[in-house]
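Researcher: Next entry in the queue.
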Amino acid sequence: MSVFCYQCEQTDRTGSTAGCSTKGTCGKDETTAALQDLLIHLCKGIAQYAVRGRALGVADHEASAFVAYGLFSTLTNVNFNATRFVKLIHEAGAVRLRVRTAYEDAARAAGREPEQVSGPAALEPASDVEGLLAQAGQVGVLAGRDVVGEDVVGLRAFVLYALKGVSAYVHHARVLGYRSDEVDAGVEATLDHLAGSPSDAEDLLARVLEVGRINLQVMALLDGANTETFGSPAPTKVRTSAVAGKAILVSGHGFDELQEILRQTEGTGIQVYTHGEMLPAHAYPELGRHPHLAGNYGGAWQDQQQDFAAFPGPIVMTSNCLIEPLPAYRARTFTTGPVGWPGVRHLTDYDFKGVIRAAQATPGFAETAPAHDITIGFGRKALLSISENIIDAVHSGDIRHMFLIGGCDGAAPGRDYYTQLAMATPDESVILTLGCNKFRFNKLTHGTTPGGLPRLLDVGQCNDTYAAIRVAQTLATALDTDVNDLPLTIVLAWFEQKALAVLATLLHLGLRNVRTGPTVPAFVTEPVWQLLCERFGLRAGETAEKDLADALGAA
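Model: Structure for this entry, 555 residues:
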């Protein structure tokens, strides 16, 4: 069995070809990696029939949901459980058969002979794991490299990986009851295109931009899902120190799971804390109204082994950002949704009774620590409500420049760049931040502009890039200019596939001179990187001092 993965920043770069070929740096073993490749291949097969069915007026919404869930399960730091992937693979086979049957019936009803579809649509999953692994060895991300070369294979990977990020947002919206035919059709059309093993670099680059367009749509959908379900975020102070009492920690991105935990712990005396990218939950009225939503604990996802070991209660991992649970806290860790780790208890149907029992059986915090807090909640409506103040500050000179510094955090050396950059920005500037990259500087003091506006504006999770885009567009219109001519510098930290989806959206919108890093993705070859730089002005971050001087000089 031969496997290969280079989808995230922490990929092994020590060999002649950057990528993890045995156990992944993330902790993913060879078997799981291979099964993930096969699941993706089968999702392409579902999409092949789904696209043809849609052309005849037949759509299978549950199949679309399965494809999004399946792709989401293969993101970095989501699911490491090979047994779960075997089940998903066989389920994919059944879903594909259902979609195929619907397509063929529709074709015959229209007086057409059904197309005999080849490629992923024709592969029948083996009945045992050994057979599945043999099949997986033929369909990995490097398939066809000897024929089409590394540039094309890397661009195929860019399309696929960005689509994985889109699928994560699709899933988050869907669990709240929101979906879009246009988004589902776009995801399926992209997978159908990849199923044909495209080899034209310009065509693939256009597909990257198309995925960016789809991602813009789904970020808007998720913005609506969150605000209509939980209310519009408002500026909110969040406690970052402990309160005495029994405690549960909720990490990941799943607001729906957090809401149920808050409901099920009402009146129990248990305090609920958020971790990592769950921080923005406190600013949503329907979540923040619960008095036992006590605060935010710890840092970004890569700090979880230290954070979780010190936390005196159970941990619930929702949606993603899981790394190998240490023995010190593995027995009190639970997963939900697409998340999984072998031997860790997985919860379904929003049943958190086991978590509550674990909280009651663990010590909790013995005393209340001195109060510390940070301010969050500058979401779309909150930012738009102060847009006139920002415009006035730009005209008066109170704001000389705006920085958007956000994205995924990570453990690689060099990420103190973002701390250095944020802390070096002048007083006559504001910093918009989102995603877990904010933890590099969100507990530091940034003060206010000369006119009294907060200099650090926490917009929310990574998908809240949509809010930042809307605000930038509003400011550009009000200032009678183009977004690219605003005094705005975008610094996007990438680690995994959702940041790639966001990057694709920025490229789709024609935003230039975006700085990304701290490293260039391993699947982006040097010729492709140079093309992106020349065509879109994409830049790799250098030093905080130089990039700040460039940004202020350009302004």
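Model: The radius of gyration is 23 Å.
Researcher: Noted, moving on.
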